[in-house]
Structures are given as structure tokens and as C-alpha cells.
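Try this one yourself first.
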């Protein structure tokens, strides 16, 4: 049971396992089906065990994690989860078809050549071919990160919900830096149309570039996205229940500062982009456990690979 789990910092250093995965092995969640703890994962059960409240009107302060050596072990996972929550709630989840974990700093993967037409074939004729082969150009994974300076004395009395939001905002901005790389990959060698001044007809033309795939997503800078939603043809457009702006032809409009004001990208998010990472978010856990909050780094090593070139089209505006 969760009350008997021994918390120690070595749980962060098990090869191929996250802290939560290590906890789950010691305290499996499926053991709590039908109980009041159902729906909590192993980490959340440890918060319950030690009565650490990370939100709500009676939310604890940061120093609550440091009332014992065992509760201090939980602090790095709390920090990581807050940053990851910010990272995961960005546009990355809306533009990547699949996530691949790669153990090295370079990734070949596979290339798809499906340029031959799909035509009827008479008896005895050879079928046209589509080729899937080992990638010819390796994707070199890059490290994105941030150095966080925060003395323990400065934050020890800060409420955990406010501290968590600060960490979440770091995750959002870290993800935005990663998104810039994804945009570079999407735009590279993509089918492109152009216009001198953006109109609704130009968006319809971009939609028409997709023959076999759907344009599920339109990505534009905040300035261009605001011009799109202000178009007369979109006057009846409303956000859906999740707050997403859906264009009249069914595409979700996403604004991202990673896109410049002269570019609009249309993709089929189910076929366009592969997200490759060699690590989850990496934190310096030992320092956090020892309350050495100055000079803490958070980083992720990742890259992107276009899956199908037919699932991406670009509209350029102006020169």
C-alpha cells in the first residue's frame, strides 16, 4: 500500500524509468479500483499520504515539501509536473501526429516516397510503387532548456499553486522555443502558394491544396490569426466547447509566435509531423531535494521529421 512505500532519491535514477513509473511498480494504481483513491496515480497518492495540498483555499507553501527527508523526495517530481503541464498544453499536441523516443542524439527513421500516381492497372501491368526506406538524412536532436534561479529562502513561503503557475509558464515558453523548430521543418520544401494581401479566398485556396488529406489545422502568427478571425466570412464563427476556433471549412485555427507574419501553414495533423525526443523533461533532482534551488536547469532534447509532404501546404503573404 501507498503508506508503506519508502521514498528515496534513488527512485529518480532507475534506468529507463521515470519517478512516477518507479513508484507505480511499488504501488500499482490498479490495486485501488473501487476505492476512494481510484483515479490518483502513485505520486498523487504520496501527496495524499503526507497531506501536501498543491491547490485550493488551504493550499500549502513550498516549505511543506521539506518537513521530512521523504517528502523532500517528492519535490522534484512536483516541479517537473508543473513545467510539463505547461509544455504539454501548447500547440505541440495539436500539430504532431506521433511521438518517437530515440536513445541517441541522431534519428534516421524512415522516408516515404509516394510520388507515383494511383492509376487503374490492366491485367499483366506492373503496379505503381510507394517506397518506405531508411531515412537518408539524420535528424540531429537539439537541446532546449532554461536555467532557473530561485533561492529557497525566496520561495519557501510561496503558495504551491502560485509557484506551480510560475513553473507552468516556464514550460509554456520552453515549448514555444521547441515549436519554432517544428515550424522550420514543416515549411521546408512544402508546397507553397502566395498572395499579395490576405483574403478569405486565399485561405480557401490553401484548403484546396490538400487533395488526399484534410487541412485539419491552420497555423498563423498572432497578428495574422487576428486578421483571419476578423474577416467578414468568419463573423458567425465561434469557439467550440474547448475554446478552439474552427474555420468554416473545418480547420482549427492555431496562433503561434513561432510563425512569422508572412506565412500561414496548413497541415493534416494526423500525417504531417513526427516529434522525436531522446529524453523527457530533465531536472537536477538532487539539488531540488537538498533545497539548492539556485542554478536549476530544465531541458529537453528533441527534433522533428516530416512524415508526408502531401499533408503540408504553405501560404505566403507579401514579398
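Now uncover the answer:
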Amino acid at each position: 500500500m501507498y503508506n508503506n512505500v519508502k521514498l528515496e532519491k534513488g527512485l529518480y535514477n532507475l534506468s529507463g524509468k521515470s519517478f512516477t513509473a518507479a513508484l507505480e511498480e511499488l504501488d500499482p494504481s490498479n490495486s485501488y479500483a473501487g476505492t476512494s483513491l481510484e483515479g490518483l496515480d502513485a505520486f498523487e497518492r504520496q501527496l495524499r499520504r503526507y497531506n501536501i495540498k498543491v491547490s485550493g483555499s488551504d493550499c500549502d507553501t513550498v516549505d511543506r515539501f521539506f518537513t521530512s527527508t521523504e517528502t523532500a523526495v517528492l519535490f522534484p517530481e512536483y516541479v517537473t509536473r508543473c513545467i510539463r503541464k505547461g509544455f504539454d498544453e501548447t500547440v505541440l499536441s495539436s500539430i504532431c501526429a506521433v511521438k518517437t523516443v530515440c536513445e541517441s542524439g541522431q534519428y534516421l527513421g524512415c522516408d516515404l516516397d509516394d510520388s507515383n500516381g494511383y492509376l487503374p492497372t490492366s491485367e499483366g501491368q506492373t503496379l505503381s510503387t510507394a517506397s518506405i526506406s531508411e531515412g537518408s538524412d539524420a535528424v540531429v536532436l537539439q537541446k532546449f532548456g532554461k536555467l532557473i534561479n530561485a533561492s529557497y529562502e525566496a520561495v519557501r513561503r510561496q503558495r504551491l499553486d502560485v509557484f506551480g503557475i510560475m513553473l507552468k509558464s516556464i514550460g509554456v515558453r520552453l515549448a514555444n522555443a521547441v515549436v519554432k523548430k517544428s515550424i522550420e521543418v514543416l515549411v521546408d520544401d512544402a508546397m507553397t502558394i502566395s498572395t499579395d494581401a490576405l483574403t478569405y479566398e486565399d485561405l480557401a485556396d490553401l484548403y484546396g491544396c490538400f487533395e488526399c488529406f484534410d487541412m485539419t489545422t491552420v497555423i498563423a502568427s498572432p497578428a495574422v490569426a487576428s486578421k483571419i478571425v476578423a474577416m467578414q466570412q468568419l463573423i458567425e464563427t465561434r469557439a467550440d466547447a474547448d475554446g478552439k476556433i474552427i474555420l468554416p471549412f473545418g480547420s482549427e485555427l492555431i496562433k503561434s509566435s513561432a510563425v512569422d507574419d508572412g506565412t500561414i501553414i496548413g497541415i493534416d495533423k494526423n500525417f504531417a509531423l513526427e516529434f522525436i525526443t531522446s529524453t523527457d523533461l530533465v531536472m537536477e533532482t538532487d539539488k531540488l531535494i537538498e533545497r539548492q534551488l539556485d542554478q536549476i536547469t530544465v531541458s529537453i532534447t528533441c527534433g522533428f521529421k516530416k512524415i508526408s509532404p502531401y499533408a503540408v501546404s504553405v501560404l505566403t503573404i507579401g514579398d
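Discussion: Residues 80 and 106 are 25 Å apart (CA to CA). The longest helix spans residues 160-187.
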